[in-house]
Amino acid sequence: MMVMMRAESFRLSRRDTMARRRKGEDVHGWVVLDKPLDMTSTQAVSAVRRAYNAKKAGHAGTLDPLASGILPIALGEATKTMPFAVEGEKVYRFTVKWGEQTDTLDTEGKVIATSDIRPSRDDIEAVLPDFTGEIEQVPPAFSAIKVDGERAYDLARQGEEVVLEARTIFIETLTLLDCPDRDMAVFEMRCGKGSYVRSLARDLALALGTVGHVAALRRIVVGRFEEANAIRLDVLQEMAHKDAVSEALLPVQTALDDIPALAITEEEAFNLKQGRSIVLLPRQASELKEQRRPRVVAGKDCFFTALATLDGVAVALGEAQAGQFQPTRVFNLTP
C-alpha cells in the first residue's frame, strides 16, 4: 500500500513538473536582443522565450527580417511596460542604393523603376533639412499596417493595389555618414514612433531626382535600450545551455527609467496592489513634480505618470495628482 502511494505521488509530481515546463516559468525582465538578419520579430521573441522557458513574452517595436539590431523583448511582468518602450525614441543606421526602386523598397522586392541619376554628397546634404522635424510620410505598401482588417503586406503580396494615407512623423536628426561609392549613401536617423526607413529612402531619392531603396538597415537605439546592452541570439542560446541566461536579463523598470520614481513603504505597496490609492506627502508630491516631463504613450498624455517602487522593485504605475497616487497598472513582483 505504501509503495503504491509513493508511486502515485511520484506520478503526480512528474505531471506537475511537466505541466510547469509546458506553461513556462515566471521570468520577469527585459532582454535587449541584437536581432540577426532573416529573422522576423515574432521568431525572435519565440527564440528568447524558449531560452528562458518563460510563460509570457513580447517585443517593443517590430524590426523587419532584412534589418538587424536592437529588438527589446519583454518577459513576464515587463510586458506591462512595453507601451513605454514602443513610444521611445529610435535610432537607425541605413544604406540607400540609388538608381533602383523595388516594390518592397528594400532588397527583397523586384525592381520596378530605374534611373541613371546619382546624387552627389552636396546634393544629398542640401535636401536633408526637408526631412527633419514634423513631416508627412506615406508608409510602404509592404508594411504591417492593417487595411480593412488585413495586413497591408498580405494584400500587396496577393497582387492587390495598396493605398495608404500619409502620416505625420517626427525625425529629430538625419545625418549623411558616408558615400562609399556613387551608388550608395549611408545615413543615421533619430526619430519617433511610426517612422519608416524604407519610405524615407524612397522619398529622399525622389527629392534628388532619382529612385532608390534600402540596401542595409540596422537599429541601434530603442528608448533606453542601446547596443551596449544588446546580446546576440547565439550567445544567449549558449548561455541557456549553461543555465546562465539570468545574466542577460534587465529589470522590469528598465523601460521606465525616465518615468518619475516614488519610493513607498510596505503598507503603501500592499494598498497599491489592492488597487487602492495612497496619499502623497507634500515632499513626495514636490519631488515627483520636479522629475516629471511631458510624454505621450499610446496616444495618452502621461504627464502625471509615475512609478512606485519598494526597495528598488517596481510595484505599480500610476497617476500622481491632487495629492494622491492612483495605481493604473500593478506589478506582481517580489522585492
- Regarding quaternary structure, how should these chains be classified? single chain
Portion in beta strands: 25-35%
Contiguous runs where pLDDT drops below 50 for at least 5 residues? 1-7
What is the ordering of alpha helices and beta strands?
Answer: HEHEEHEEEHEEEHEEHEEEHEHEHEEEEE
CATH arch. level architecture of the largest domain = 2-Layer Sandwich
Top-tier CATH class of the largest domain: Alpha Beta
How many helices? The count is 9
Largest sheet composition: 10 strands, mixed
Protein architecture, described:
It is a single chain. The protein has helices at residues 2-23, 41-52, 82-86, 121-127, 152-157, 197-207, 233-241, 266-273, 282-291, and strands at residues 29-35, 57-59, 67-75, 90-98, 100-102, 111-114, 133-137, 146-147, 150-151, 167-181, 184-191, 212-222, 225-226, 231-232, 261-263, 278-279, 296-297, 300-301, 305-310, 313-321, 324-330. The chain is α+β, with helices and mostly antiparallel strands. It has three domains: 26-87 and 225-252, Pseudouridine synthase; 90-220, Pseudouridine synthase (2-Layer Sandwich); 259-330, Archaeosine Trna-guanine Transglycosylase, Chain: A, domain 4, CATH 2.30.130. The strands form five sheets. Strands 1, 2, 3, 4, 7, 10, 11, 12, 13 and 14 form a ten-stranded mixed β-sheet that branches. Strands 15-19-20-21-16 form a five-stranded mixed β-sheet, with helices on one face. It has a two-stranded antiparallel ribbon with strand order 5-6. β5 and β6 (111-114) form a beta hairpin. The protein is globular. Residues 1-7 have low confidence and may be disordered.
